[in-house]
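During the reporting period, our protein records have gained a structure token line. One record among many is quoted in full directly below:
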Amino acid sequence: MAYEQITYEAANFVATITLNRPDKLNAWTQKMEEEIGSAVRAASADDQVRVIILTGAGKGFCAGADLSLLSEISQDTAERAGRFLVYNEMDGGGSADFRQKHAWLLSVPKPIIAAINGPAVGLGFVIPLYCDFRFASQKARFSAIFSKRGLVAEYGLAWMLPRLVGVPNAVELMFTSKMVDAGEALRIGLVSRVFPEENFLRIVQEFAQELARTVSPRSLRVMKRQIYAGLSQNLDEAYEAALTEMRGSFGTQDFREGVAHFLEKRAPAFTGR
């Protein structure tokens, strides 16, 4: 498929999806959203893709919703503007939690890495929260910004952010709309790694390729589902689900390969089955 506002590349079991409006700091549009949905679905269905990277072209990750879009919404009726808030992508495995706009990324059965190469503001701040890894360049900057736009904690931000950085840090980020740098983001747990600006994407791709080569795609698929389902389960429910998944793992090709490559002291050749 030809894309206008993103690029899509797949190699070495890794798909790289790049927001591609660098002159606008990759400001988010409806067209971009639709293209990202299409690209993620393509990566999800491709057996030659095991890890997905989401990043931005140029100096920014995403500066938030395009100002022309915000202006249009601000002049529209509340009812019609509200339609912009609803857009489902994946089926989410039947769970309403994973059918919501942007939150559907949690239902994608492959790891998603947000490679945050520059400013991540507003909606550009929210999107990485629904990725499995958040890696930042030293030039990355973060701001929720909504309180300075007369808006609120959109798209589940008030639910997700406290679970990542704790309530006090979430309150400060959301109430003040302050900008934090990569070092502060690492300190509070908003990102898990910070890499040099030089060769940033190459470093992230090497991490993704290592993940794709050395661990079972099936294990990642199941564990991702366990982790995010577990956010709304009690311990007993999570424990019982784990027992069921473990029993199912024993009969798989990846389990047999996991034992065999260890005993034979060789690199694994997982199939995801």
User: Anything to note?
Assistant: The domain at 6-212 is CATH 3.90.226.10 (2-enoyl-CoA Hydratase; Chain A, domain 1). The mean pLDDT is 91.
